[in-house]
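Q: I have 433 residues here and want to know how they pack in 3D. Can you give me a structure?
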Amino acid sequence: MAAPPMGSVAIVGGGWAGLACALKLAKAGYAPVVLESAPEPGGRARRAHVEGHDRDNGQHLMLGGCQSLKALFEAAGIQLPAVPFTFRSDTRQLSVPAQAGRLGLALALCRARGFSWSERYQLLRALTNLQIRHWHVDQTLTVSDWLQQTKQPASLINEFWAPLALAILNTPLHEAAMCRLTPVLRDTLGQGGSALCLLQPESNLSATIVDPIVSTIEQAGGCIRCGVRVTGVEPTASGYQLLIHNASAEAFDQVVLALPTWALSHLSLPPSLNATAWAQAFGSQPIATIYLGFESSFRLPAPLIQLAGPTPEDARVWAMDRAHCGEPGVVAISLSADGPWHSLSGDTLTQGCLNALQEVIKNLPLCLWKKAVIVQRATYAATPAALIAESDLPPLPGLYLAGDWTHPAYPATLEAAVSSGFAAAQRIMQAET
C-alpha cells in the first residue's frame, strides 16, 4: 500500500507539547523537525545542573489520571512506578489506596488523621456538588469565590484546598479561574485511588522521559535540532518560511508553534496572529524549587509532606523526597505562584523552608547544603481571562498552535502540554486526508 502524501512539518519548541506532537507525527509516518533554542529539549521539565548533579528544573507531579501523559509514555515505551497518594503535615495525614474506586476518597477521609468530621463532610459535599453539575462552573468564578460559596472551613482552605489549588494552578487563588481547577479534580479526586497514584520517574525527567521520547522520534524518522533560535514565521506560496538567528531561512509546508505566549510575542509573525494580546491575557507566574541536601540515608515519612510557607503570609507548600529519582537524601520544596516568598533573598528563602521542614520532621538531621532555583516565567496565570478560542488554534492554514496554554480546560500542567501537542498533530493529519 502506498504511503499517503506528507508535507514537511516544523515544530518550533522542544518542550513536552512539541515533543508529543513530533512523536505522534513520527509514529504516523511523518518526518517532523523540532527546532529548540535551548541546548537540549524538554522545556521547563528538563534537567538542570544543581550542586554537582543533574536534577529536575522544578517538581512536576504526574498522576494516574493523566491520560495524555500515559499515552505518551506508552508510545515511547516508558513505564513509571506508581505509588498511592499520601500526604502528611504536622497535624494531618491522608492516604488514598491505589485500588480504591470512586468511593476511595470518602473511605480515605474516614481513616484520615487530623480532619474534623465537619471538614470531611464539607469537602465531600463540595466535590459531590461539582460532580452533580458535571464539573462545570461559571468561567468568571475564582477559586476563592468558589471556596466561599461552598462554605469550606478556613482550616480546610488553609491546609487542604489552598496548597492543592496553588500547586495545580500556579496562580493566587483570588485570581485563579475555578474552571481550570475542576477538570483536574474530575480526573483525580473524582475518579478514585488509581487516578490519584503518583507516577514516579526513577531519575530526572530528562533521563527517564525526555531522552526516550527523543530517541523514539528519531528512530521513527523525526529530527530534534537544539540550539536553533527561530525569530519569525513568514507565509510563502506553498507553506511557511522560518527565520532563524544567524542562519539561513528554512521552508516547510506546515509549522507548529509549540511555545509559551511570552515567547510567541517575541517572534515576527503574520499580522493576523496577535501574540502580544495573548501574552497580556495569559501573563506569567513564578515558581521556586528549594533543594535541601541531607545524608543519603535520610527519607521523608511520606511521598508528600505539607509545610508552612517560608513566611507567615505565604500559603502552605509541598516537600517531596527525591530518593526515588536517584537522589537519596535530597528534599525538594515547591513554591507556586507569586507571593511574599518572591521578595526574599535566596538564602532567606531556603532557610525559611528548612525551618518549616524542621517543624514537621522532629529531630531533622543536619542540612548539608541548600539551593533555590527560581523560574520567573514558569507558567501562565490561570485567570478567567486566560482562555483561547478553539477557532484560534489553527490561526492560518498550515500553521498550528500548541502548548499548555492552548488547552481548552486544563491549567498549565504537563498533561495539558502533551494533550495540546497530540491535538496539533491530529489537526495536521486530518488536514492531509
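Q: Anything worth noting?
A: The radius of gyration is 22 Å. The chain has a mean pLDDT of 93.
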